[in-house]
Amino acid sequence: MNNSVENRFFGIVCGALLVFVAPLFVLFLFLSSERADKEIRDHISILLVANAQALAKPLWDLDEESVTQISATVVSQGAIVKVEVRDQSGQLDVSQSTIPRSFDGKLVQVSRAIIYNTIDGPKNLGSISVYYPALGLFSGLKQEEVVFISIFIFAVLTVFGTALIGNRFFVIQPLMRLTAAIEATRQLGSRHHVDWQSNDEMGRLARSFNEMQTKLESEEKELKLAHRRATDIYNLTPAMLFSLDEEDRITAVSDYWLLTTGYNRAAVIGRNFADLVTANTRDKFVKRRRAESGMAVTVKFVCLDGRPMDVLIMESEAGAGAHDRLSLSVMTDVTELKASEDRNHRQAITDHLTGLLNRQGFEAVLDSKIAAADAAGQELACLFVDLDRFKWINDNMGHAAGDRALIELVARLKTHLAPFDEAARLGGDEFAILLPAKDAERRAKAMCEQIASIFETPFAPDMHLSASIGIAIYPHHAATAAELLQKSDMAMYAKKRDGKNGAQLFNNAMLDRARSRAEIEANIEAGLVDNWFEAFLQPIVNLNGRGIAGFEALMRLNHPQKGLMPPAEIISVAEETGKIVRVGNIIMERAISNLAKISRISGMQDTYLAINFSPLQFDPALPARLAAIVGRHGIRPERIVVEITEAVLMHDNPEIRMIVTELRRFGCRIALDDFGTGYSSLSYLNRFPVDIIKIDQSFTRAINDGDDDVRQKSRMLIEGITTLSHKMNCTVIAEGIETEEECRTLHQMGLDYGQGYLFHRPQHAAKLIEELMAPQSAVARAS
């Protein structure tokens, strides 16, 4: 009996209880305890945050009574049994406790620093610590959880007992009777039937034993019937079924296969299936069938009437060996599906507005055009076309008008394209044209002249367009498709820089410029990471006495190997890439820090700092950022001059206007840089809160020009600007003063301040401070 089924069942049930139920019970207790502890900690964390804030002011004032009252309030909360408040300096040490004398358990401590925000910033005044009793394994249980555990234990015991009783009556006893019947059959040699009737597994086993002989007699009849049914299904199934032997000959076809293809059974049985496939897909079918045992392939099948039909063939093998290979295949008509795929593919590579190829389609066809040019011994010209005024049309006449112009442009362009040419719209107002020819450069220039003629006629009333075209030739300028498109793009941008409206053939100098730009971008990024940017300062002097009135902060990139790099290109690239914001913030921070150092020098307490700002730097956070920096360094806002150019103001952006006004309200002064070089600079004096006008150095150089007419006009302009500015209470500064004669003339004209190499060159702040501190340095405070 030790190895009986009943004993084994009892052992399995007991083992299951120990392996699964007991660990789950322990895990439940542990999770309950963890949950209770987390609830207490969350509650205490909230109390500590609130009371740490409440204690900050009393602790700062060393108000022990208020600290004691708040501590008493905390110790009365929930599970907290003890509170300790300590001052950082040790002057206050308040402790509140409700721990009973008989308590000998473990306490858990939670602490938090007490921070008080002063004018000088946040101060750590001390800490608050609370204690609560550590929870045991059962102490975290709620009442409903205890009830749940009791019900769970009772349910487990009930199931265990029921399983043992049921196993005894419904498994062991029927199994013993069945064993006795089988033993009797073995000993007597007769077909002894099992005397057992039930609807469970034991009953089905007994009936199977009794019916075995009867089923053996009927097997042959059932096999014949199954074969006949399989044949009927093969022929009557509404699918094109066929079978092939090891030599790809047709051995059977379904009636639906014959109906769809138009053939008759006698004409195709024994015929090689590959003979019914079009010549351009026949090799594909043969190779796929030889390579794969259960293939799936799409080919073009030729029907009896000669109509080609795209079919998907799915094959499964039914043969037993390599020399007895039989298959069952289904052939599905996918002609409409293939046509739909082709339409979708054309839509994916076609621009929906113009009907030309889009960028994806152009890049795909570019490789094939290069391969075709190589095969024909030709060259391939790539024209990159960019419309010059298209953004203005969209902004001022609407996108619908822009779309109509593009459609009309493509219609005119197609009249000049040869059958083997290819045109594409790469996006927006960018187009590309591929021209294969023996002399691709000559043909490309001729095409550019034809494209120029397209724009002679307006596309609508008051809608005149032009185009900048870049030309690159394969294989002279590029060896790959990507390189050809890139270099034609570079040539187009070169034409844009040179004045637009025309064509430019690629040359290696463009590549050098691109490499130079990439090098500048890399230097800017490295400068930001490795701290290469420095804020040089150039003094601004009072023309009446030459005393220093202020300083202009100038960006310099000090490369560790190349030294100081020209700032103009760096600023231009930084503005194009958007990195000017990060660079400008660094220069602003360092320049203000340098001004704080200069302010410690006698006579320099009232000098100001002028900082140039790019249009990209005018984000809503700029006033707050600038206020934080000057506050940190103790600089009065009126000592900061924000220099802006016409580029910042010319679009009259409401957001920029608001930021400039906010800076002015904060106390900063506003200077208009390079005044007189723009289109409408005078209007800004009336529309914006400008305090200082900086006359561009081109006017300064012209006041003593050798040409009398130029000299006279320049002086009249400067005098007029100065008079207008003074009438509007604006200070006037002349830039680029290099000679005493220029300085004397400008002073006589009534200008207030000057800046230039005559007085000081831009230099590192440390060197400038050293010069200012020299005994012989004559310093005068600005009036």
TrEMBL record:
The superkingdom listed in its UniProt entry is Bacteria
Where the record annotates domain GGDEF, the positions are 378-508
Report the GO terms under cellular component.
membrane
Every copy of the EAL domain together lies at 517-776
Q: Which residues form a coiled coil?
A: 202-229
The regions listed as transmembrane in this protein's record are 12-31, 146-166
Q: Start and end of every HAMP domain?
A: 169-221
SUPFAM superfamilies reported for this sequence: EAL domain-like, HAMP domain-like, Nucleotide cyclase, PYP-like sensor domain (PAS domain)
One Gene Ontology BP term is: signal transduction
Q: Which Pfam families is this protein grouped with?
A: EAL, GGDEF, HAMP, PAS_9
- Please tell me whether the keyword Transcription regulation is annotated for this protein: no
**Alphabetized UniProt keyword annotations:** Coiled coil, Membrane, Transmembrane, Transmembrane helix
Q: What is this protein called?
A: Diguanylate cyclase (GGDEF)-like protein/PAS domain S-box-containing protein
Q: Which organism is it from?
A: Rhizobium lentis
